[in-house]
## 1
Amino acid sequence: MAGGVGSRFWPMSTPEKPKQFIDVLGIGKSLIQLTVERFETVIPIENVWIVTSEKYKNIVREQLPCIPESQILLEPCMRNTAPCIEYVARKIYAKYPEANLVFSPADHIVLDVNTFRNVIKNSLEFTENREAILTLGMMPTRPETGYGYIKSLQGNETTSQQVETQRLTSESIHKVEAFKEKPNLETAKSYLAEGGYYWNAGIFIWNAKMVVNTITALVPELTSVFDKIEPYFYSDKEQEIINQYFPTCPNISIDYAVMEKSKEVYVYPADFGWSDLGTWGSLYTHLEQDENNNASVGQNINLIDCKNCVIHTPSERKVVIQGLDNFIVAESDNTLLICKKEEEQHIKDWQK
Amino acid sequence: MAGGVGSRFWPMSTPEKPKQFIDVLGIGKSLIQLTVERFETVIPIENVWIVTSEKYKNIVREQLPCIPESQILLEPCMRNTAPCIEYVARKIYAKYPEANLVFSPADHIVLDVNTFRNVIKNSLEFTENREAILTLGMMPTRPETGYGYIKSLQGNETTSQQVETQRLTSESIHKVEAFKEKPNLETAKSYLAEGGYYWNAGIFIWNAKMVVNTITALVPELTSVFDKIEPYFYSDKEQEIINQYFPTCPNISIDYAVMEKSKEVYVYPADFGWSDLGTWGSLYTHLEQDENNNASVGQNINLIDCKNCVIHTPSERKVVIQGLDNFIVAESDNTLLICKKEEEQHIKDWQK
């Protein structure tokens, strides 16, 4: 799923080239390239599909030349995750009714790729012949208010220690009791104290038949749109028909449309150094920091008397910064942003 | 005189395109364009000569298409102001022995152009038939430590009020007692308290014959270099010969070589809103400031919770800055500088 616009990371991320296509970590690979790479050895590259906006088609082709054009699905407009998932699941199901699917955002990071691959393997095993929707629940390490939470059925919580000792076998998979929206700090603290709550990583594993049947049962207004589109799958007219009908899809997330309603939702507690990199603050914690706790992405950055800063500038730019403490300095797309880290929630407003 | 490299204004000013060629004030004209414009109505444009480095030839041609190529003299290397003045004075004197000359830096600003023009007219009248070197002394308004000072002969000082009431006629011209290097703050304060001290603006008015004779008498090792060059003035070989012999000139300022030694030096106290724009701080005071005392040069700059800052960014760049107090933010030539105003004396070091 690579259709987001990444507005919180402006100006590094822009509507023309959002976060998933940016080398956010300064390691020579964009987040979508890292995401595809993460599935290597688990899912053959020829089975990888990208759903994105039509305006990012060329960026995807350029960054992922390994993905055939026929497996890059283009949305003519943004309609949140439910239509995205219905589109690719219906299309794959039409040709491969036995398919088992992993849905993953393209703009997150995972530090422990080996564990991630084990979790995905176990997950696919779990859903292969089961009418189950499996979500990955990240072991929470702090009362984060920027994530949604998944609550496992009471008595079924898995502790961090168990995750470790069980070496992430599928035996730690449990039914979900509820999905919780981003909490305030007090609520988040109570979740951690109570146990059995996990961060919702937005990664879902279910087989194609289950996706199609579940959406048919729970989101009929979405199914009816794709009933009109389905006859054109794999035809020359598919894009034209998508462009015509996709905008009539309900604008709805898969969490709201399905996860919060289905009785067959499971959570697999896991711990593989995941982050949605949703804020500059979270990026900062995932970058290497110098002895003054500055994190820099750029080739030629000279920091003098600076501390606790995060700097993200074009690789060709020479940068000299003196005397900043706890600031974000970002330049991209002909735009320069300098602001205090604690003010980053206002970045969306300043773009206008 | 347009050969400087403007290193204190990095990165706005760079060795490739120094300060005199930059629209420092954000008004659509570079400092050299403003300087040439300042002499309009006083000196016919066909009598204007530029001495610069050979590497700035194309910038000068581009920014000053009104100046014929034959009046752009190119130095193959930097040898300070004495060789520059000797070159252009000897060359003009060879063809126009009656010429009366004004030497002016290309990278200063003058706010009151009308008064400036009156001063220049009076100055040229004073030196036309006199064996005199006239310097312009700026009425000091603060104990500035960034300028050299000119001390007029005791009993000859002119007060600020006199400058005003005399309406800057040449009657306020006096002999110079001494040139003083940039003082420390205590010394600068004593200059202002004592009176009769003026800022040295680096503008000199003397006739061509006086320049040639004075340099012959006081800097013979410079004269001897140009004795070899003179036969090639106005010939096809001039540049080749200049390139050969100019590097052998002593590297010496006109202040040190002549002004401090000649007995015929006069000072004309004047007040026309002059600044050498030698520091970011002095540029800051000459830019329009918003209600939070921020001074910005750029087309699309959004300042939030900022005060006392000076921002100089490319006109095409969108800039959002939040939470800075008393900072310099400058971008040019693929380089970004952010630093505290009070640290600007270190900018030269950071360029390396």
## 2
Amino acid sequence: MEIKEIKPAEIEKKSFEIITSLLGDKKILPEHEAVVKRCIHTSADFDYADNLYFSPDVMEVLKKALKNGADIVTDTKMAQAGINKAKLLKYGGEVHCFISDEDVIEEAKKRGVTRSLVSMEKAAKLNKPVIFAIGNAPTALISLYHLITDNKIRPCAIIGVPVGFVNVVESKELIMTLDTPCIVARGRKGGSNIAAAIVNAILYLLD
Amino acid sequence: MEIKEIKPAEIEKKSFEIITSLLGDKKILPEHEAVVKRCIHTSADFDYADNLYFSPDVMEVLKKALKNGADIVTDTKMAQAGINKAKLLKYGGEVHCFISDEDVIEEAKKRGVTRSLVSMEKAAKLNKPVIFAIGNAPTALISLYHLITDNKIRPCAIIGVPVGFVNVVESKELIMTLDTPCIVARGRKGGSNIAAAIVNAILYLLD
């Protein structure tokens, strides 16, 4: 069993070198590389070299929004935990997750809908530029779709990477029909870790 | 675009039915099914049908420990966020993550080692039955290996599922050489989401 001694600061650098080498001559647009590689870094799943869709200019939009202090709204406490909040705050942004709020829980129960759906409606009332980072609930994306087409909200961009088997693929394809800039993991894969990884990849590009 | 209306409570049930059907006649031991399927549920990655190693009796050990109020120690705030803490508390357990503690940060910097390593040493001082759930840092697993072989700690079990490219495979194989009961995701894959999913799968078996 050979375990190489390696300094903490070197681990991430070395990891990205290995990812780059394993990607070989895979075609990835240079402006998308940081996001694609960080998704692979967080999952060791090379499907993210193929399944990530970037709308035109979404990277520029996201970088500009974060630099100007946009907030992030996410659908899970896990994604909230995974996002680099110190780095985000440096530019003036914070992360919101309303999923466990008492009022959200109560209203979801009353209406027989998911908490994710209600938490998006609550987010629509934030009076700040917002980026949505959805890693879990297709119902959050579907709710966002309706809020946007009803002109109730106009987010800077959507990171739409829920994972799963029920309405997940469809909810992501739906978001891609909007004019809102988006990054979407097509297919079933995604997750809170992927949502956080994408936000962090863009934050690290700002330095 | 066809999005089926489905009640929140039905989504998870339906998801597991789809997973079961997609697994087809894949051989999975009945006692491991709940864990394997929940890892697939959280990642949509069917590699977890093949890469999870269960030491003999680990499921029984984990169920008994959780039922008796064992605490969980994890290496990331994301895994901590993902674990069902209400369910855990029902049996008397709580989740610890020391990775962002001031003393851990300071000591890691001083010694030039990872915070994950130091956070395991801190966990070794807990005076309670403990299950480790490691989803990120191979250095946490390597540290645990040494703490166990030096008789400084004796955890109930280890859930060893770090993800990545540097020392990850090796650290997991190392844990499998111990007598400590373990669940390990062999290979590069894993993550905080997988660590949380495994803990939750076992908690849900207790009901």
